[in-house]
């Protein structure tokens, strides 16, 4: 595995050689990557990027995968012009950097994107997925946004919303067994709290042997023994969206 000693090794995907099938658009004050299926659809998924931002090829690869499964996919710049984290940055400054990018303060941008999807793309059923920082943002949205139908949080940083579990919509949580960022004790506690407080459908799934970032890992960093779990995670994500959208 590459970069496993990093505090947030999502950047195992930072060199994914992938250009994307969609296009970049300006939606009010937000730049976004949009990909649409050839056949018209009223189903859309908002893709929330990790700390490496909306232009990370790996994230666009997943957006395009959603499109091949019949969804309009949009990955907005939720940092709204602020610089994404770079693998070359000094990790000692990471906490200060993160303070200016709050996964719980994206509601204004989400409202803008929802309006765009409804008015410009004809979307009626809209879900959300997110990775790492974006996975925490998914949990935030599932707790409060009435306009989204469902969410998939992929290795979302649990401690960000550790005390909030009354989800409004069906939510699927994906975690890696060997994720250094999200210890299994936190996942167990999340499950316990959801069982006590959550009144909608949810699932928490741990994938054996997998580390942080595994579902959108770049091709050359995929070990043969990990590939089945990566494919399973992607398939599970699609199946969950298909069930609720």
Quick structural summary:
This protein has 245 residues and is α/β, with parallel strands linked by helices. It contains six helices and eight strands; from the N terminus they run E-E-E-H-E-H-H-E-H-E-E-H-E-H.
Structure description:
This protein is an alpha/beta fold. The chain has one domain (23-244): 3-Layer(aba) Sandwich (Rossmann fold), CATH 3.40.50.1820. It has six helices and eight strands, in the order E-E-E-H-E-H-H-E-H-E-E-H-E-H. Strands 1-2-4-3-5-6-7-8 form an eight-stranded mixed beta sheet, with helices on both faces. The chain is globular and about 45 Å long. Mean pLDDT is 90; it is low at 1-16. It is found in: Cytoplasm, Cytosol.
**Gyration radius, rounded:** 17 Å
Q: How many strand segments?
A: 8
- Globally, the shape reads globular
Structural class: alpha/beta
CATH-defined topology: Rossmann fold
CATH superfamily: Alpha/Beta hydrolase fold, catalytic domain
How many domains make up the coordinates?
1
- Give the termini distance in whole angstroms: 34 Å
Helix content: 25-40%
Kindly report the average pLDDT value: 90
SSE pattern, N- to C-terminal: EEEHEHHEHEEHEH
Query: What topology, given as strand order, has the largest sheet?
Result: 1-2-4-3-5-6-7-8
Number of distinct helices: 6
Residues in β-strands, percent: 15-25%
Q: In terms of topology, how is this protein built?
A:
Blueprint: E1 23-27, E2 30-35, E3 43-48, H1 57-68, E4 72-76, H2 94-99, H3 107-121, E5 125-131, H4 133-144, E6 150-154, E7 171-176, H5 184-197, E8 202-207, H6 227-244
Parallel strand pairs: 3-4, 3-5, 5-6, 6-7, 7-8
Antiparallel strand pairs: 1-2, 2-4
């Amino acid at each position: 595995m590459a970069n496993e000693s990093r505090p947030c090794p999502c950047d195992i995907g930072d060199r994914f050689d992938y250009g994307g099938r969609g296009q970049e658009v300006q939606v009010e004050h937000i730049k976004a990557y949009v990909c649409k299926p050839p056949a018209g659809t009223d189903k859309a998924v908002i893709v929330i990027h990790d700390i490496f931002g909306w232009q990370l090829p790996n994230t666009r690869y997943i957006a395009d995968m959603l499109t091949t499964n019949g969804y309009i996919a949009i990955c907005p710049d939720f940092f709204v012009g602020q610089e994404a984290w770079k693998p070359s940055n000094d990790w000692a400054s990471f906490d200060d950097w993160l303070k200016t990018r709050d996964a719980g303060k994206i509601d204004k941008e989400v409202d803008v994107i929802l309006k765009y999807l409804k008015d410009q793309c004809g979307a009626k059923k809209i879900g959300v997925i997110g990775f790492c920082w974006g996975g925490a943002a998914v949990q935030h949205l599932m707790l409060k946004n009435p306009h989204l139908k469902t969410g998939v949080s992929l290795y979302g940083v649990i401690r960000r919303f550790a005390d909030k579990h009354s989800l409004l919509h069906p939510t699927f949580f994906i975690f890696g067994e060997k994720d250094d960022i999200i210890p299994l004790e936190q996942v167990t506690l999340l499950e316990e709290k959801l069982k006590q407080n959550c009144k909608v459908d949810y699932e928490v799934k741990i994938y054996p042997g997998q580390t942080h970032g595994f579902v959108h890992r770049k091709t050359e960093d995929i070990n043969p023994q990990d590939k089945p779990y990566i494919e399973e995670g992607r398939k599970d994500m699609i199946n969950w969206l298909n069930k609720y959208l």
